[in-house]
Amino acid sequence: MAISFGEFDYIRNILRQHSALSLDDTKQYLVESRLDSLARQEGFPSLRHLIAQLQKDPRTSPLHSKVVEAMTTNETTFFRDVRPFRLLEKLVFPELIARRQNERALNIWCAASSSGQEPYSVAMLIRENFPALSAWSLRFIASDISQAILDRAQAGRYTQLEVNRGLPAAMLVKYFRQLGTEWEIREDIRKMIEFRRVNLIDPWPPLPEMDLILVRNVLIYFEVEKKKEILERARRLLRPDGFLLLGGAETTINLDDSFEPVQFEQTSCYRIRPAASRTS
């Protein structure tokens, strides 16, 4: 059932307040498609009845949280876009390994991990191409705003459709086992990753200095000031010679001039300009 513009505006104000997600006037269809199934799951006869209940409940109610989670769960696949993973394999990890030979330690943060395909893709890439890192101290944190989606990511179970999207057949055979109609990623790969709930617009929890931060395909949903704030926080968390990886449609240009692009083939990542690292 279609909702009114006023009801749509009410929902997008909730999203802006709780997650900084910004929806323009053309995105009413997105609210209807994502929240219609939630309304049915919660026992409401229609989405409009769900919205009416939201308007009665306090903004801290569990139903508000479920709406935010339903709207902020983003599309993801294994090895999404391919080229950034080639950049990690051929440029980022070789450089970091060379620079950290004395420390033999790396910290990685995947800051919008959704249902886990991205961090697991990075973990499999490490196992396939950099076996020496198994003897290093490797801390790999993956976070998302939704606890429900994090629980699913931590379980590491995916449907046949999900493993068919982006995952090479050889990796499916090597790193997964079939359980009924699902595929479960190997326990040793799951144990590489620490899943934590982090809302990027709230104060961040204590985190170690990072060698690599991935914030892919999430900044596009934020307004400019929130993008700037998140990039500034990421810069302060990133080691001076570390790397920041954004989505293909995202950039630091005109948002944070402290970063400089590093080109590789047809894609790029970012690192802190030397002058910025001295003054930050």
What does this structure look like?
The chain is of the alpha/beta class and 280 residues long. It has helices spanning 5-19, 28-41, 47-56, 62-72, 83-99, 117-129, 147-155, 160-164, 169-175, 187-190, 224-237, 274-279, and strands at residues 105-110, 137-144, 157-159, 176-179, 182-185, 193-197, 210-215, 238-246, 259-264, 267-272. The strands form 3 sheets. The protein has a 5-stranded parallel sheet with strand order 6-2-1-7-8. The protein has a 3-stranded antiparallel sheet with strand order 3-5-4. Helix 6 links the parallel strand 1 and strand 2. It is globular, with a radius of gyration of 20 Å.
Topology (elements, then pairings):
Layout: H1 5-19, H2 28-41, H3 47-56, H4 62-72, H5 83-99, E1 105-110, H6 117-129, E2 137-144, H7 147-155, E3 157-159, H8 160-164, H9 169-175, E4 176-179, E5 182-185, H10 187-190, E6 193-197, E7 210-215, H11 224-237, E8 238-246, E9 259-264, E10 267-272, H12 274-279
Parallel strand pairs: 1-2, 1-7, 2-6, 7-8
Antiparallel strand pairs: 3-5, 4-5, 9-10
Helix pairs in contact: 1-4, 2-4, 5-6
Features:
280 residues, alpha/beta, five-stranded parallel β-sheet, three-stranded antiparallel β-sheet, 45% helix, globular
Structural class: alpha/beta
Percent range for β-strand residues: 15-25%
Helical fraction equals 40-55%
Low-confidence stretches: none
Number of strands: 10
Number of helices: 12
Biggest beta sheet attributes: 5 strands, parallel
Radius of gyration: 20 Å
Q: Order of strands across the widest beta sheet?
A: 6-2-1-7-8
Separation of the first and last Cα atoms: 51 Å
Order of helices and strands: HHHHHEHEHEHHEEHEEHEEEH
Overall pLDDT level: 92
Tertiary shape: globular
